[in-house]
Amino acid sequence: MNEFTETQKVKQAWVIVLMVTVTIFSIINYVQMPVSFASVSPLVITFLADLVLIALKLNTKINKHGIYFQLFPIHFKQKVINWNEVSTIEVRKYSPIKEYGGWGFRYGFKNGKAYNISGNMGLQLVLKNGDRILIGTQKPEELETYLKNN
User: Fold this and answer.
1) Residues sharing a CB contact under 8 Å with residue 138, sequence separation 6 or more, in sequence order
2) CATH number of the structural domain spanning residue 84
3) Whose CB has fewer CB within 10 Å in the chain, the N or C terminal residue?
C-alpha cells in the first residue's frame, strides 16, 4: 500500500435532523413576518450554515512524502506536513468535546489543533516545533496498518 487516503463528510443523523429543524423554523419565521432585514437575515444565515455543513469535507492523504489534509471549506488548499517535521505520530482515541470543544476545526489549549468531522479516533501528530495536530479518521485500523508498514 503506497498511500493512505480518506474522505469524510457530515453524515451524522443528529446533525442532519438539527439542520433540517432549524431550516424549517427559519422558513416559518420568514413566512410569518413582514419582509424586512430582520426576517430575511436568519433565513440567509441558516441557508449559509446549511451550505457549509453540506460542503464540509475532510480529505486526508498520507504517503512517503508526508501528510496532506484539507478541511474544506475552511481550507481552500491542502495543508502539508513533511515527515521531517514530525516528532511523534500515533492513532489514538480522543474526546472531541472534552479535548477540543467539538468537531470541525478546533483548538484545544492543551492539545493543539484538531481537524475532525465525526467520531473519536484520530491521527495525533506532535511536530518538532512543539505544535500538536489531530486529524480525525473513520479508518483507524487501516491507518494504523499503513503507518506500521511504511
Assistant:
1) 6, 8, 118, 119, 121
2) 2.30.29
3) N
Residues 6+ away with beta carbon under 8 Å from 13: none
Q: Grid coordinates 467520531 are at which residue?
A: 119
Q: How far apart are CA 33 and CA 48, in angstroms?
A: 20
| Same-domain pairing of 142 and 71 | yes
If asked whether residues 50 and 111 sit together in one domain, one would say no
Domain that residue 35 falls in:
10-54
Entry pTM? 0.79
Q: Quick check: is 111 in a domain?
A: yes
**Residue 138: φ, ψ to 5°:** -105, 5
Whether the predicted pLDDT of 104 surpasses 70: yes
Is 94:120 a contact under the CB 8 Å cutoff?
A: yes
